[in-house]
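Lab notebook, bench 4. The sequencing result for the construct came back, and we need a structural model before the next group meeting so we can plan mutations. Quick request posted to the team channel:

Model the 3D structure of this chain.
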Amino acid sequence: MGLAYPATVADWRRIARKRLPHFYFDYIDGGAGEERTLAANAQAFADLRLRQRVMVNVEGASTQASIAGESCALPLALAPVGLAGLAAARGEVQAARAAKAFGVPFTLSTVGVCPLSEVAAATQSPFWFQLYMLRDRGAVQALLQQAWQSGCRTLVFTVDLAVTGPRWRDVRHGVTATGARPGLIRALQVLARPGWLRRVALGGKPLTFGNLASQVPGARDLNAFRSWVDAQFDPSVTWQDIAWLRGQWKGRLLIKGILSTQDAQAAVDAGADGIVVSNHGGRQLDCAPATASMLPAIAQAVGKQTEVLIDGGVRSGVDVFKALALGARGVLIGRPWVWALAAEGEAGVGRLLAHWRQELKVTMMLTGVTRVQDIHAAHLDGNF
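Done. Here's the predicted structure in token form:
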């Protein structure tokens, strides 16, 4: 994009694409199948129109909010992203520091590069932790204990990964294959990004699956890790297992991966303190509905019983406003913060958040709103 400051998510994405090895950029950027749901997530927000208001006193408008019991600079948290630590040297640590400095929650993925202890030492403050249900309940208990000891008090439990969706970009790069050819493909792509090789592959060591080092034999090896994950992801999990988890975790529990009112109610009945309306960023079931299209009904069904958050397709502060108008208490974002991290590290994530706060505040003022709690469906123009 030449000599210019990145301003929008599209700008951050463009820079990230130039800086990251192709296979890793596509791992972050891509979705399942033909990526119809991936596209629909963003399009559903883009199609919504806002009702402009004038001559309203909006002096003192504030984006301050509360999500999951925490005061936030805006109603947003950084979502868990697997292997985000490959976007920059010790990437999860950089993102967590940026989130802390700005005043929003950061969520560490179970399959992140940086372990819980490293993020805790770097931030010296609570953060969120994301977990899947594994066949080895002892491993689940061990991770929960590590998270609690690291200061995590909010657990984001992902329930939409009984099996991994087909991600054809990964297949094309040989990420799912073994042998010399896929290794050569990835090696050539790494060599094509000498800056990334120097900063991250060499300067960001150790590149391990930090939280699973004690669980996965050969945790440094992608193929060994994939084999362990395939064996451990438990397709037999039911809501009874979530009730078991509720008994194990004494902090706040958010269930992520809800796309129907029935499942939303089941999450509430299982003891969830909140839900995240999510289709895994379009990475699981292709042709699943866009999250924005399902949010109103889910918020209406359980919004008075539990806290409703949303992720998938949120690409600006304007989209944050739209999500709140549809009934969410707040949003989680994934790809945008990883792109900003790849482009400019910790400073990039901070700048992205500052831009979104400004954009949300301007949107509030031009629609006649001074508090995020007052954003509702009447601020949307037309049917949705």
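The longest helix spans residues 335-366.
Will bring this to the meeting.
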